[in-house]
UniProtKB/TrEMBL annotation:
One of its GO terms (molecular function) is hydroxypyruvate reductase [NAD(P)H] activity. Residues 112-290 form the D-isomer specific 2-hydroxyacid dehydrogenase NAD-binding domain. This is D-glycerate dehydrogenase. Residues 16-322 form the D-isomer specific 2-hydroxyacid dehydrogenase catalytic domain.
């Protein structure tokens, strides 16, 4: 009897979705939902066909050089900045992600953060919960309007475009900056989004949403200089990745009133984010949950599962990120 290949599932979730795997693999689940250290990850990956993981698993040259026989790493995320694709290819490892199925859900959440930040929803709730609501006044928790304002989007991929489409219901103007300008057809579909340079985006946006993938080239692309160019009444929303924003500079800008507020779902060094955020009232802070709806997370896991099953069957994984690996 031939034994089945082994698969490391770095998180234990949606058992019914994972059940598809048991026809193909002997599974090793991370029942405790721990984030593995690099040495533990290397140990656990030894002798495995592959791994299903999340953004917290760092797959780099150092890790890969300790392994042999690993064929696929499949992340439950659209962002794959935790993978060194070049190193994966060199080591003959296929890398896959789970794109598309989270676009609309993530766009919804960007709007949730933008609305909560502009209208100071969490700040007002804290006030109420603290028993401080003893009287009411006309200038009580005044915030900024969304309707009729200018929405800026940095990073106009599939998620950025889904965010832009939603602006039509609010009568907002949409401007964006991206590595390249979208086709006219795509701009039209994205509520007539207008391509501008980065400086114009920073200066004109009343609400600026970050929706670009992380790479070393965009590290701290929003720092002290950029924040100083934004309107004092503006809000900054990050549903992309920590590291795009210089968090220390953002804290300064929020303290000094250089911008009005920030809605953040991602942070540098999460889950150990900058503690000074907690002392600020003009922030809405969430623990990386923009894609977290039951339906979408199931769809993401399903996609990650499909990728490893294709690989073990000798088929092309639908979301292969490094097709060059097939030529090796
Ligand atoms: C993931 C994300 O849920 O898709 C991404 O890039 O950031 C989230 O949707 C998270 O990264 C876990 O892998």
């Amino acid at each position: 009897k031939t034994s089945m290949p082994k698969l490391l599932v770095a998180r234990a979730m949606f058992p019914d979705v994972l059940a598809q795997l048991s026809n193909f693999f002997e599974l090793e689940l991370n029942q405790e939902d721990r984030i593995f250290s690099q040495s533990e990850l290397a140990e656990r990956l030894q002798g495995k066909f592959g791994m299903i993981c999340t953004s917290s698993a760092k797959v780099d040259q150092d890790l890969l050089s300790k392994l042999s026989g690993v064929k696929i790493i499949s992340t439950i995320a659209v962002g794959y900045d935790n993978f060194d694709l070049h190193a994966c290819t060199q080591h003959g490892v296929m890398a896959t992600n789970s794109p598309d199925v989270l676009n609309e859900t993530t766009a919804d959440f960007a709007w949730a953060l933008m609305m909560a930040t502009a209208r100071r929803v969490t700040e007002a709730e804290h006030f109420l919960r603290a028993g401080l609501w003893t009287k009411w006044s006309v200038d009580f928790f005044v915030g900024a309007d969304l309707h009729g304002s200018c929405l800026g989007i940095l990073g106009m991929g599939r998620i950025g475009q889904a965010i832009a489409r939603r602006a039509s219901g609010f009568g907002m103007e949409v401007i964006y900056h991206n590595r390249s300008q979208l086709s006219e057809e795509k701009e039209l579909a994205a509520h007539h989004a207008r391509y501008v340079d980065k400086q114009t985006l920073l200066r004109h946006a009343d609400h600026l949403i970050l929706a670009l993938p992380y790479s070393p080239e965009v590290h701290h692309i929003i720092g002290a200089i950029e924040l100083a160019q934004m309107k004092p009444s503006a809000t900054l929303i990050n549903i992309a990745r920590g590291g795009i924003v210089d968090d220390a500079a953002l804290i300064q800008a929020l303290r000094n009133g250089q911008i009005a507020g920030a809605g953040l779902d991602v942070f540098e060094n999460e889950p150990r984010f900058h503690a000074d955020f907690l002392g600020l009232k003009n922030v809405v802070l969430t623990p990386h949950i923009a894609s977290a709806t039951e339906r979408t997370r199931r769809a993401m896991v399903n996609r990650a599962v499909k990728n490893v099953i294709s690989a073990v069957r000798g088929e092309l994984p639908p979301d292969l990120l490094n097709p060059e690996v097939l030529e090796i």
